[in-house]
Amino acid sequence: MFLKWMSIIFYVLLLLATGSSAYAGWPDRPITFVVPYTPGTGIDTIARQLAARLPAKLGQPVVVENLAGASGNIGSEKAARSKPDGYTFLVQVNTLVMNKSLYPELRYDPVNDFDPVSQTSWGSLLLVVNPAVQKISTIQDVIQVAKSKPNQFTYATPGVGTPHHLAMALFLQRNHLEMLHVPYKGTSGAVTDLLGGRIDYMFLPVHVALPHILSGKLKAIATSSPEKLPQLPDVPTLSQSSSDNADMWYGVLAPKGTPSDIIKQLNHEVVKIIDEPEVVKAFKSQGMIPAPSSPEEFRVLIVNDARRWADVVKAGNIKAK
After folding, report:
1. What is the mean pLDDT of residues 101-130?
2. What are the residues whose beta carbons fall under 8 Å from the beta carbon of 24, sequence distance 6 or more?
3. How far apart are the C-alpha atoms of 277 and 182, rounded to whole Å?
């Protein structure tokens, strides 16, 4: 009996040793960063900044794979289904957790099928108006005028369930307002109609809105971020006067079950890269504020954000199309 137990203990110890050494040489082949959106987007910028710098730290190439479609669900599902061996990661924005409520038929769980690696940054949306059409100066002006004329004003979005849509839904719900939603297939057509005076309001990413704001064609009423933007220091935040902030997080995630040692090592390298001046500059050019985190901090953010947007989707009876 003694020999039997000794054999079992030896076998268990051997397995543990084998398991730990299996990842001691990580990585020993190229790593893939899945980006579930098209090249040139903010999230793509993040992935490529990391992919350009990680090889010098890890000793292996990092390939960015753009898998756009279905509001990010195609690429996210592939990443969730990938082998959790430290060679496939997902670079995403908080659309990931919004989709958990918008698409109940998803074949993966946006919250529970991933292990967070690190948040990379915060993104912000700006509530903008065409100053030639709407003589609005403050967020309180927006609220007062909209309350006096329910459903008489319109707001555009790049589609149902997009961050732009849910940011406006949150703002309207918190202030008990009613406006008509005009969803477009993408941002460009919506911006064209906003500039042409055919749409009243819109939430736009900073890098998209800024040129039009500086030229005087659009006026920024408020930012969705918890802090004022350095590019627009006079523009107040939503949380200062009327609503919860509607900021967007960006970050790196791994398929559930990826070894914790790999996650810790990648987190260590990602956090260092995000502090590099050139990376900070690239992020800010896209209207993003660098915000590295621990895996545990990122997990808390993801869980809380999923709960917040689930409440907004339910209250607004929002259904993705």
Report:
1. 94
2. none
3. 40
Residue 230's Cα: distance from chain center in Å? 20
pLDDT at residue 23 in the model: 59
Q: In degrees to the nearest 10, what's the CA dihedral of 47, 53, 57, 63?
A: 50
In a domain, 17, yes or no: no
pLDDT of 12 reads 45
Nearest alpha-carbon partner for 99 in 309, 316, 317: 309
230 vs 68 pLDDT, higher one: 68
Out of 207, 223, 241, pick the residue that ends a domain: 241
Averaged pLDDT for residues 133-146:
90
Q: How far apart are CA 44 and CA 83, in angstroms?
A: 22
Beta strands in the chain (DSSP E): 31-35, 62-66, 88-93, 114-123, 125-129, 154-157, 180-183, 201-205, 219-223, 248-255, 288-290
Parent domain of 196? 125-241
Write out pLDDT tens, residues 40-83: 888 999 999 999 999 999 999 999 999 999 889 999 999 999 99
190 with 117, same domain: the answer is no
- Pairing label, strands 248-255, 201-205: unpaired
What helix, strand, coil percent values describe the chain, rounded to 5? 45, 20, 35
- Does 4 reside within a domain? no
Q: What one-character DSSP code corresponds to residue 85?
A: S
Residues 117 and 141 in one domain: no
Closest among 47, 27, 51 to 37, alpha carbons compared: 47
CB neighbourhood size of 191 (10 A)? 22
Dist. CA 321–CA 309, nearest whole Å: 17
